[in-house]
């Protein structure tokens, strides 16, 4: 994690997302199946860019470690109805991947890429880092 820092926008997104109520993260996680086509578009972009593909494992690790630290320090929701750290990571990962590739998706001449970014980040719109 330390040898591959992520852009501040990605770190800010992950820090905010892990603090969301678990009921909301559960609801978001259940929506991912309906967005398979958008997730496929993002996967195709990942496969076409070696440097991005190399960041996917570290991104998952970063989210998991951040969620684990939030749980340990009491920043994240805890208790009998709280999600496992891995479940939190799975709920956040598709949107975090889109945030990491924001420029490639949002500024793409391929409409499906911009649409995928919008669809995958929509559940997190209120915490999505703003652009100038």
Description:
With 132 residues, this protein is mainly alpha-helical. The chain has one domain (8-124). It is 66% helix and 0% strand. The protein has 7 helices and no strands. It is globular and about 45 Å long. The mean pLDDT is 92.
Brief characterization of the structure:
By secondary structure, the protein is an all-alpha fold. 66% of the residues lie in helices and 0% in strands.
User: Largest sheet, described in full?
Assistant: none
**Which oligomeric form is depicted?**
single chain
Q: If you compute it from the alpha carbons, what radius of gyration comes out, rounded to the nearest whole angstrom?
A: 14 Å
Distance between the termini: 28 Å
Report the count of strand segments.
0
Number of domains: 1
User: What ranges have pLDDT less than 50 throughout 5 or more consecutive residues?
Assistant: none
List keywords for this structure.
132 residues, mainly alpha, 7 helices, 66% helix, globular
Question: What's the topology here?
Answer:
Elements lengths: L7 H10 L4 H10 L4 H12 L2 H23 L12 H16 L1 H5 L4 H11 L11
């Amino acid at each position: 994690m330390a040898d591959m820092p992520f852009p501040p926008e990605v770190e800010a997104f992950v820090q905010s997302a892990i603090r969301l109520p678990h009921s909301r993260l559960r609801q978001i996680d259940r929506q991912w199946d309906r967005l398979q086509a958008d997730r496929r578009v993002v996967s195709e972009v990942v496969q076409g860019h070696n440097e991005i593909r190399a960041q996917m494992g570290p991104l998952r690790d970063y989210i998991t470690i951040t969620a684990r630290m939030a749980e340990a320090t009491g920043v994240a929701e805890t208790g009998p109805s709280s999600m496992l750290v891995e479940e939190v990571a799975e709920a956040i990962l598709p949107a975090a991947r889109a945030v990491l590739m924001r420029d490639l998706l949002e500024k793409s001449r391929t409409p499906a890429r911009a649409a995928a970014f919008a669809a995958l980040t929509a559940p997190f719109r209120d915490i999505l880092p703003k652009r100038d």
